[in-house]
Amino acid sequence: MYEEVNDQINEYANEPGQNQVYEYPNEPERELVRVNDLTKVYGKRTVALEGVNLTIPRGRIVGLLGPNGSGKTTLIKIMNGLLSPTRGNVWINGSLPGPATKATVSYLPERNALDLSMRVEELLDFFGDFYADFSRERAGEMLRSLNISPKDRLKSMSKGTREKVQLILVMSREADLYILDEPIAGVDPAARDYIIRTIIGNYNSNATVLLSTHLITDIENVLDEVIFLKEGHVVLQSSADALREQQGKSVDAYFREVFAC
Amino acid sequence: MWKLDADRPIYMQIVERIEKQIISGAYGSGDRIPSVRELAAQAGVNPNTMQRAMTELERKGLIAGHRTRGRVVTEDREMIEERRGYMAKEMIREFLWQMRELGFDKEEILPLLRQEVTDDV
Fold this sequence. Notes:
The complex is a heterodimer.
Chain A: H1 2-13, E1 31-42, E2 46-57, E3 61-65, H2 72-79, E4 87-92, H3 99-102, E5 105-108, H4 120-130, H5 136-145, H6 159-171, E6 177-181, H7 189-202, E7 208-213, E8 225-230, E9 233-239, H8 240-247, H9 251-258
Parallel strand pairs in A: 3-7, 3-8, 5-6, 6-7
Antiparallel strand pairs in A: 1-2, 1-4, 8-9
Helix pairs in contact in A: 6-7
Chain B: H1 10-24, E1 32-33, H2 36-43, H3 47-59, E2 63-66, E3 70-73, H4 77-101, H5 106-119
Antiparallel strand pairs in B: 1-3, 2-3
């Protein structure tokens, strides 16, 4: 195991090229998302979110963590302008969810929203037409590396491949904010590793990735910040490493403690 | 993806791992370290976490920013040798502490150790 990784590293070490500077961003002007007193009530008494306050800076990969029914998807849908809040609001880059934010937010919904009969090349056209920040070259390159042909249709693909294609489309936008709702649910470990590497490899230090999941073990090493959502309330927002240091346990172990039934 | 424990800060484990690779010579003196992004993708960790580990390794003097080549392993071989000795001492102390916990005293440990070293091929 060790030798294998060492070899890989040596191989990389001999490659020419420049190191990218990746300063940890924490200046206040780097704020990207602000959620203020956000409340969503369905019908008369189903409270999905209550008085949620959050700020999320640029340049982070943030995990929105909570069990089923904790309000993750409601929060994500409000951020994408698919639901309107009962009270309070969300600002992304200083704008309320709407056409301006849709141009800079790249969203991977929990459930497939694409027409399964479409071919990959049609999906590329579709994304190119809809989003000015879509890079067809970047998407094409990633699809080629997976040996996915432009002529393939979504419906002929395995679930794992379909998830990869959707993620590639979403990550091929030059967005400020990537919102991924359960990006790794129900895929095999190899597909999961591919998805994680694609997320790391495609976002830049000026953008933020907000991803929701209840499968924390699989993804916690990638997160630099975590938000715990419990019954519609934010119960924790912390740097993942600070949490490990303070609690002496993994994010997953601490999550299980907070959400013990 | 690197094997990292989720219950200790990730950046610390990366620092330890790269430090070991420098000490063992897997990364030679003056070798270029891959970019933060490459390393982060290999390790399966966040680039910010990798950046933090690099900053820590720079602070320790094990790696340094190079004008045109990104980050390189220090050319100060004496310092690497010093860290090598320090790490060895740390591991020996840990070993002795654990042996004492098992109830062995110094007189017992040495012959046992000598035997194992001789048997080790």
